[in-house]
Amino acid sequence: MTQDEIKGQIRESISRITGIRADDIGERASFQKDLGLDSLSLLELVVHLEYGFKIKVPEDALPGLQTVADTAQYVHERISTRA
Description:
The chain is an all-alpha fold. It has a single domain (3-81), classed as Orthogonal Bundle (Non-ribosomal Peptide Synthetase Peptidyl Carrier Protein, Chain A), CATH 1.10.1200.10. 55% of the residues lie in helices and 0% in strands. The protein contains three helices and no strands. The longest helix is centred in the N-terminal third of the chain and has 16 residues, at 3-18. The chain is globular, with a radius of gyration of 12 Å. The model has no long low-confidence stretch (mean pLDDT 95).
């Protein structure tokens, strides 16, 4: 799976959570500052990531997941290590 495909799935998940159109979600937009995700919404996003990509996201990884780009990089690394 490419990083662009991963970014697309992350945008779709954020869209479902926030109601913001996936096309309007920039890859460098801050989840909290720009997209308005609160702690509960971020937890919901993590659940989407874990189920959608079949990965585990430990709590200590959360501070590094602030944008679509950050999150896509993290997911790509996790997927690549299990291949």
